[in-house]
Amino acid sequence: MKLLHTADWHLGDRLGRIDRTDDLRRAVERVGAICEQEAVDVLLVAGDLFSELARPDALRETIRHWQDVFREFLEGGGTILTLTGNHDNENFCQTLVHAMSLAAPTVGKPGELIPPGRLYLATDPTFVKLADREHGTEVQFVLMPYPTPNRLLKGDAGQKYASPDEKNRLLVKAWSDALAALRAHPSYDPAAPSVLSAHVHMFGSTIGPSLFRLSAEEDVVVNGDDLAAQFDYVALGHIHKPQALTAPHVRYSGSIERMDLGEQADQKGVVLVDLGPGGLRGEPATLPLPATPVYEITVHDPGLDVPQLRADFPDAKTDLVNLHIHYTAGKDVLEDVLADLDAIFPRWYARDWQEAGALGDSIAGPEVGPARGFGETVRDYLQQELTNHAEAERDAIVALADELLKEFEN
């Protein structure tokens, strides 16, 4: 049985003012192509399929895109096993599971053999089996969503805690207990090929500059020291940096795209795994995925730096850029500088600027005019404040402000 391990798709996400839909859909299409090229049997997506920033209409289009990409894979007998992560909306995912159950029976009792050729989404700890098409061997899959109080702390007593630390301790214990309970189920065979897929932070992992939109204090960190001996492969999600942990078969695949500046140096990819009746056959292989460049640029002298940037970055139309701009009032026209940079880096996702007179005594020239007019100040403020809003909403508000400004100026 060939498995393709991936995670952290964050479909429908945004980076600042930039909608990442097209980037992420291209990455999903590459994953679909790999499934076909490598004759994959099971696609494992270890959580965070969707972005918490995605709107309902975007989620609908995401599901439609899945159908287009994976229709032939599923019709050919491939199976998609997924589970919820910390960025997946619990209500939406539960609704999706209920809707899927209307079309076909969902996963039944723990340890049941499930039919191939469809997508399964686990919103609670789940134990299922799939038949290996090559040998007929049953492979066991344990799916562990991200540990949240709603998923793991059942009843009023379980959800009463005095502090975040106490909540995390309860969740760590509940996660470990749920995993142990699935492995202790009468249908679970410790000698049979088995795979764990989990969306969780494990001790010993390297997270890079920071976690993705989550503080270290909020996160739930579990101990996975025993997992290498318990499972033939452990497919992890949540940490975006690809890495193996205690053994080559215990690993994070990483996200399928660079999601923010902290991932600018990451090589993205997916992991191909081959399981036989006796367990893992060879070491898992990482297959690289192209990723969108993400970086930051600081402009110290627009007159010198902008022409140089134009020469150095002739093909930056799809790059994601954080711009820091220093300019001198009376020498540089800020609106012109912003327009020039917008032409070089049309997908800048954030930008800030500072007038050189505020940086030090020797930077500004002797004749310094006003930094910005009233209209320019208002427009810049709105652009900054509306960075994370939908583009249509932002444009509508800025257009309304332009009308009001014209009335004011008249």
UniProtKB/TrEMBL annotation:
Q: Gene3D superfamilies of this UniProt entry?
A: 3.60.21.10
Q: Indicate yes or no for the key word Nuclease.
A: yes
Domain Calcineurin-like phosphoesterase: where? Answer: 1-242
Q: Does the keyword Hydrolase apply?
A: yes
| Top-rank taxon | Bacteria
Keywords, sorted A to Z: DNA recombination, DNA replication, Endonuclease, Exonuclease, Hydrolase, Nuclease
| Protein role | SbcCD cleaves DNA hairpin structures. These structures can inhibit DNA replication and are intermediates in certain DNA recombination reactions. The complex acts as a 3'->5' double strand exonuclease that can open hairpins. It also has a 5' single-strand endonuclease activity.
Q: Summarize the subunit comment.
A: Heterodimer of SbcC and SbcD.
* Similarity comment text for this entry: Belongs to the SbcD family.
Name of the featured protein: Nuclease SbcCD subunit D
Read off the lineage from the record. Answer: Bacteria, Pseudomonadati, Planctomycetota, Planctomycetia, Gemmatales
